[in-house]
């Protein structure tokens, strides 16, 4: 190495030498066969399996039973105060109101009030089969990010058509200009002795309802 050269310059020089004369592969010629292969014949069933792997509860329910399933999921956790963000179907709200103290975020809701909420019910924008991940872009029915992080229970409804094969497929469906939250199971962490603690950075309980469109 000469006095005026750096290790970086030497490495880059060797890379240029190795590439000199090499044929360039056009972008179109890069193999993309993975885009045409689904991770499983039934991606909805795979999604359910992967969600369950994260210790979340997942149920497939008929389209005409979603409201009742939402109520049952909240009841199972012993919730008393349930938040339904603006945009959640009115039928679900009516059923929830009949059994719980229903909280709305239409006029805005602060952290102090959120701490008094036991459960939140939302929709989603995408589910990822290969990873069991739910994606929220905080549009209608999903609320702002805090409403899905502060309450101890999150009940999330995902339609079958929202289930994407894998992450690249999911990203093609998402608007990069919107805020996004990726949820893979209940919030959990482990200490140095690998003792798992749930509910640290978000909901302790995640209940996913998968419904046909």
UniProtKB/TrEMBL annotation:
Residues 103-211 form the LUD domain. It comes from the Bacteria. Pfam families: LUD_dom. This is L-lactate dehydrogenase complex protein LldG. It comes from Saccharopolyspora hordei. The lineage of its organism: Bacteria, Bacillati, Actinomycetota, Actinomycetes, Pseudonocardiales.
């Amino acid at each position: 190495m000469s006095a005026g050269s750096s290790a970086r310059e030497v490495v880059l020089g060797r890379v240029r030498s190795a590439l000199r004369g090499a044929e360039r592969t056009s972008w179109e010629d890069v193999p993309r066969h993975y885009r045409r292969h689904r991770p499983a014949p039934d991606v909805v069933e795979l999604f359910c399996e992967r969600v369950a792997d994260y210790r979340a509860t997942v149920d497939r329910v008929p389209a005409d039973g979603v409201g009742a399933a939402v109520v049952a999921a909240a009841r199972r956790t012993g919730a008393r105060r349930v938040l339904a963000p603006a945009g959640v179907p009115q039928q679900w709200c009516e059923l929830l109101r009949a059994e719980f103290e229903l909280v709305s975020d239409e006029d805005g809701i602060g952290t102090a009030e959120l701490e008094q909420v036991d459960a939140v019910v939302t929709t989603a924008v995408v589910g990822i089969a290969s990873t069991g991940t739910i994606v929220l872009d905080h549009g209608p029915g999903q609320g702002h990010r805090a409403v899905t992080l502060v309450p101890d229970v999150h009940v999330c409804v995902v339609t079958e058509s929202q289930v994407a094969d894998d992450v690249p497929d999911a990203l093609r469906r998402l608007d990069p200009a919107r805020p996004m939250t990726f949820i893979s199971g209940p919030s959990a962490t482990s200490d140095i002795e690998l003792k798992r603690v749930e509910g640290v950075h978000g909901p302790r309980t995640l209940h996913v309802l998968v419904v046909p469109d």
